[in-house]
Amino acid sequence: MAQPKDAPQGLSLNKYISDSGFCSRREADKLIEQARVTINDELAQKTDRVSAGDVVEIDGEPIRTKAKPIYIAFHKPQGVTSTTDVKDKTNIIYYINHPKRIFPIGRLDKDSEGLIFLTNDGDVVNKILRAGNNHEKEYTVSVDKPIDHEFIMAMGNGVRLAEGVTKKCYVRQEGNRRFRIVLTQGLNRQIRRMCESLGYKVERLTRLRIMNITLSDLPVGKWRYFTQDEVNKLNRMLEGSGKTEEASIIDEGRPQPRKPRRK
Fold first, then answer.
1. What CATH number corresponds to the domain at position 95?
2. How many angstroms from the chain centroid is the CA of residue 84?
3. Do 121 and 220 fall within a single domain?
C-alpha cells in the first residue's frame, strides 16, 4: 500500500501490533506475510508504518488498545506444540484455553516438557527472546546411554553445530544418564542436537527455569499467573535489555559458564 505522508514519523507496523498486546513482533510479521493485516482497508506490507488516525485490522478486526499485562507460567506436557497456529490442534493456546488472547514466549519442543511463559505483552517477549541479553534457561536431560566426565566437559565447553560452536555453559552430571544444563542461547532443538553431535539421544528433556521463574511444584499440564514479586524481579532483570530483533545466538568468544542461581 502507499505510505501515508507522515509515515517516517509513525510506528513500524510489527511494533504497533506488538505494543497492542495482540502478539509478538515475529508473529506480527507472519500475519503480515499471510496477508491478514490491513491499514485503512488496504493490504499491509512489512515496511509500512502506522501514524495517528490509521486503522489497523487483523482478519478484519480492528486492533484494540493494549490490555492489562498477563504473565503465565505453564508446565507444558509432552505432545503440546508451542505455537499459535490454529491449524495445529495440539497447539498451546487450545490446550490452555485462556479467555484472553495470549501467546507463548519462545518455544519448547513438542517432545519436551517443562516451563514456558505466555503473555499478551509484546515488549517482554522481545526482551526475553533477544539472545544478546543472555537470559538463563535451566533444564534436566536424560539420555539413552551412560554419560561420563568427558561428555559433561564437551557439552559445557561448546559443541560444533551447523550454525557454529555453541556458547560455553554450566553442565552438571546428576545420574548415570542424567545431567543438568543452563543455556543462554536459543538455537532450534539445541540440547538435542548437542547430544546427537556427541553420539547420544535425548530420551527426556524438562525445562525447570527461565530467568527467575521456576517450575517449583507446578504439576504437568497446569498453569499459574506470575506473582507480583516475580513480575517485579523479572522487570528488574530486563532493565537495559534490548527489544530489537534477536541477536546472533553464536558467540565465537564463548564466555565463561555461569552456575544456576541458588533458590
1. 3.30.70.580
2. 13
3. yes
Instruction: Catalogue the active-site residues.
Output: 109
Cα-based torsion angle of the residue sequence 110, 112, 117, 118 in order, rounded to the nearest 10 degrees: 20
Q: Which DSSP helix (H) or strand (E) runs through 166?
A: none
pLDDT tens-digit map of 194-225: 999 999 999 999 999 999 999 999 999 999 99
CB 45 within 8 A of CB 1: yes
Query: Residue 223: inside a domain, yes or no?
Result: yes
Confirm if 181 and 200 have CB atoms less than 8 A apart: no
Asked whether 20 and 64 are in contact (CB, 8 A), the reply is yes
- Identify the segments of the chain with pLDDT beneath 50: 1-7, 243-263
- pTM of this prediction? 0.69
11-45 pLDDT, tens digit per residue, is: 899 988 988 878 888 899 999 999 999 999 999 99
245 domain residue, yes or no:
no
In a domain, 139, yes or no: yes
Q: Where are the alpha helices (DSSP H) in 65-165?
A: 92-96, 122-129, 149-157
Residue 239 pLDDT: 80
User: Would residue 12 count as lying in a domain?
Assistant: yes
Total count of domains within the chain: 3
- Pairwise CA distance, residues 123 & 186, whole Å: 18
Cα–Cα distance, 104 to 184 (Å, whole number): 18
Query: Does one domain contain both 125 and 138?
Result: no
d(CA 73, CA 211): 12
* One-letter identity of residue 94: Y
Q: Which residue segment(s) compose the domain that 116 sits in? A: 71-130+215-238
C-alpha cell at 57: 485490522
Containing 25, the helix (H) or strand (E) segment is helix 25-33
204 membership: H or E segment, kind and range: strand 202-210
